[in-house]
Amino acid sequence: MMIAPLYSAEISPATVRGFLVSFTEVFVNVGILLGYVIGFAFQFLSSAYNWRLMLGAGALPAIFLAVGALFVLPESPRWLVLQGRNEEAKHVLIDVVCGKDEVEAQQRLEEIITANEEEGGGAGCGCFSGGTKKSSNSSSGKSPLGSFLSDLRRFLTSPLARMYVIAIGVNFFQQASGIDALVYYSPVVFKQAGVHDKIGKLGATVGMGVVKLAFVFVATYLLDHVGRKKLLYVSASGVIACLTTVAVTFVLLGLNSAKGDSLIGVSDQKAETARSSAAGEAVTIAAILAYVAFFSVGFGPISYVLTSEIFPLRHRSTAVGVSVFVNRAVSGTVALTFLSIAKAITPAGIFGLFAGITTVSLLFVWLMVPETKGRTLEDIAHLFASSSHQGEGSRDVELAPATK
Fold first, then answer.
1. 13 near 289, Cβ under 8 Å?
2. Which of 80, 112, 108, 78 is nearest to 94 (CA)?
3. Dist CA 264 CA 194 (whole Å)
4. Distance, C-alpha 22 to centroid of its chain
5. What positions does the domain Major facilitator superfamily (MFS) profile occupy (predicted)?
6. How high is the pLDDT of residue 174?
7. 276-314: string of b/e by CB count within 10 Å (b at 16+)?
């Protein structure tokens, strides 16, 4: 979850970086879909060993990954520069990034070296290197608390702080829209919508996995053609509309009960009403599938793309780790509390809550997130620093493709 987008961003040319980094989300969804399909297929086997086969199947891709990482994948050229191994970095740039073009590889290498030296010397975005030294020199005589507060103030007004806000915010909103709760509890949600037979629920769940994967593939194309920010607008708007539709349909079908002894309680009488309302069932399932599609075309892959490309070299790995931690923490919290909250405020209430959170994400994207399409990683770091020094907000600074 952390290394894949980071590595992809660091070895990708700027023109196709969004396409390549988004493959992290593609293969996450391939895994989810395979899990659905394997679960569907293995249910017909004996319960004495079908779950063991499901668990064992997960070891196969891990073996291929280990072999590839050990014997095939080169180190990232930016990491090699950070370690002072510039000649090795140039060879990786020639072989992997620049298509055997030695002139372009040399140019890219010089850009990476320059950016690394600036960060190490406190220029540009090196908010913790040179900036801390200046702060410590100018704050001689201050108490340790005073020095800490001074350094903290410098960080909070630095370009790096804005980068962290963007990365953490995008990862928070990605999971706070409720996508993982729907992935984990899709059979329960489809039962609530009126699908009561086991084959029907599993079939609808597999269909959701297919839709999720298909629209991530759509996003891989659009990221470097349409851009990140526009896709986030489309994704959030679609998610809001679909979640609202699900909530309203639950209310109109009379399924919005928080009582009963099921995971999300529905009385037998109301369940029978749901069976008789084929149109309502179809609308709910269609809205859920559309929700998954809108999520997958925007927030799904873009959180990984933005997180891996906006940070300067010296801070990138730590920052991506922090962002992925936030992503997983929010995902776990949503999954663990989904059923309890649904019982407390009704199923329509929790889908309405997710819609409300996603509405806030639209404002966040408008105010904070810049467009990074077509820029090199070094250009992005410099432009964050420039916008900070000029006192401009992200709404006024579009990181347009660099002129050649």
1. no
2. 108
3. 13
4. 9
5. 1-373
6. 93
7. ebeebbebbbebbbbbbbbbbbbbbbbbbbbbbbbbbbb
The torsion angles phi and psi of 112, rounded to 5 degrees, stand at -65, -45
The token pair that represents 76 in the structure block: 């990232």
Helices 50-57, 23-42: inter-axial angle, 10-degree rounding? 160
Neighbours of 111 (CB within 10 A): 15
The 10 Å Cβ neighbour count of residue 180 is 19
Are 233 and 369 within 8 A, CB to CB?
Answer: no
Q: What are phi and psi of 333, to 5 degrees?
A: -65, -45
Count of residues for the chain? 404
Token pair recorded at residue 357: 């959170």
Structure token digits, residue 244:
């609202």
d(CA 365, CA 288): 23
Angle value at C-alpha 390, between 384 and 393, nearest 5 degrees: 65
User: How many CA atoms, within 13 angstroms, populate the side-chain half-sphere of residue 136?
Assistant: 7
List alpha helices for 94-197, DSSP H.
Answer: 102-121, 130-138, 144-156, 159-176, 179-184, 186-193
Q: What is the pLDDT of residue 234?
A: 95
Rounded to the nearest 5°, which phi and psi values hold at 126? -75, 70
Lowest mean pLDDT among 47-61, 102-116, 144-158, 323-337: 144-158
Q: What SS3 class is residue 113?
A: helix
Q: Centre a 10 Å sphere on the Cβ of residue 39 and count the other Cβ atoms it contains.
A: 16
Both tokens assigned to 392: 């401009």
Q: Which has the closest alpha carbon to 230: 136, 59, 105, 371?
A: 371
Q: How far is CA 84 from the centre of its chain?
A: 31
In contact, 351 and 178? CB cutoff 8 Å: yes
Residue 182: exposure state from Cβ atoms within 10 A (0-12, 13-18, ≥19): buried
- With contact defined as beta carbons under 8 Å apart, do 380 and 372 qualify? yes
- CB distance 163 to 399 below 8 Å: no
Task: Kindly give, in sequence order, each residue whose CB lies less than 8 Å from that of residue 221, ignoring residues fewer than 6 positions away.
Answer: 19
Which stretches of 178-260 are DSSP H helices?
Answer: 179-184, 186-193, 198-222, 228-252
Distance from C-alpha of 334 to C-alpha of 319, rounded to nearest angstrom: 23
Least trusted range by pLDDT, from 7-16, 244-253, 263-272: 263-272
Burial of 174 (0-12, 13-18, 19+ CB in 10 A): buried
Instruction: Write down the pLDDT at residue 127.
Output: 47
